[in-house]
Amino acid sequence: MSSAADFAAAARTLSLEARRRGLVGPSFRCPPRLVGVDRSIRRRGEGAIVSVRTRDRPWPAVLADMIEGVVVANQLASPASDRLRAELWETCAAPVTSPTETTPRQTRRVA
User: What is the per-residue pLDDT across 24-35, written as a single tens digit (0 to 9) for each?
Assistant: First the structure.
């Protein structure tokens, strides 16, 4: 499962990386307005809004939908779409599980 902070951090990273490549950096929200879907995309002028369901889903599935949303929002075809997916996974996928689940807690000793 992912937290709202994980989702927000991934959304910022993916939009920034898309814009850095001269592509549309979509906005992200959750959940989708359509009932029963994991991901939806709405186009607004030159931009796009990618909506992703996060509840009861593993973090890799949420992140995959967010990355695919960037690809679809930019209407990319292979091989450009394959290259972008790989680059976005490289940027976001360390770690592949939720950052809140894998980050060890730091302890402070207080005298």
Answer: 999 999 888 888
User: What is the number of other CB atoms lying within 10 angstroms of the CB of residue 12?
Assistant: 12
Predicted structure pTM score:
0.79
Instruction: For residue 83, report the phi and psi dihedrals to the nearest 5 degrees.
Output: -65, -45
Burial label for 73, CB within 10 Å (0-12, 13-18, 19+), is: buried
What distances in angstroms separate CA 24 from CA 48, 60, 92, one per listed residue? 8, 23, 18
CA distances from 59 to 4, 51, 100, 106 (A): 11, 15, 10, 23
Per-residue model confidence (pLDDT) at position 103 = 46
